[in-house]
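Final report, closing paragraph on structural work. Over the funding period we assembled a curated collection of sequence-structure pairs, and we close with a single example.
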Amino acid sequence: DEYLARGWYRMGQIIFTTNHIVYEEAVYRVYWLRYFIPSIKYNKNHQKIIALNHNFSVEIKPLEITEELEELYALYKSSIAFQASETIRNFLLDGGTADIYNTSVIEIRDNNKLIGAGIFDNGTSSIAGIMNFYAPSYKKHSLGKYLMLLKINYAKAMSKAWYYPGYIVAGYPKFDYKLFIGKEIAEIYLPELASWMKYDIDLIAGDED
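Its predicted structure, as stored:
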């Protein structure tokens, strides 16, 4: 919780922070993002996604990296255009077997078929969204966003205060889906001030230059 609140994040079995990333030989400014869970109110778009997927079953449990999860991840990885880790195990455990984090998984099934999974870490008063993946044939169901909503539902039920979904990138909109929870309640971390502030599109746009 303390590291998340300082703009750090889990990567493999370490915790790190950064203010910039490199994509296609260009340097971009990143902003770590969080939401105060009690302030999250579902709008029509959120409710539409929940309704769209109401026939699917959902189970939340401690993470066990199964062959079924790896197969779904491999299917998802084959459908995306950006670079991703070869396996879930490599991404989370650096290829090892031990996990120092308290990690859970949300599994979405259509009847008995696993179609989506979301992995997150539990803190005392927060959760950190680590990865989401789903069957490409279910893309129209917005399962990535649905998994974010399911994580929030879990956090609310567990009386958590904060949801950390990762970072957004100035001038690189691929990560902006994380703002669909609500730009008006999103907070971004400013390392220069060592504090969080309300999301401000003008501030982000200023770092695109």
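Residues 1 and 124 are 7 Å apart (CA to CA). Residues 143-157 form the longest helix (15 residues). We thank the funder for supporting this effort.
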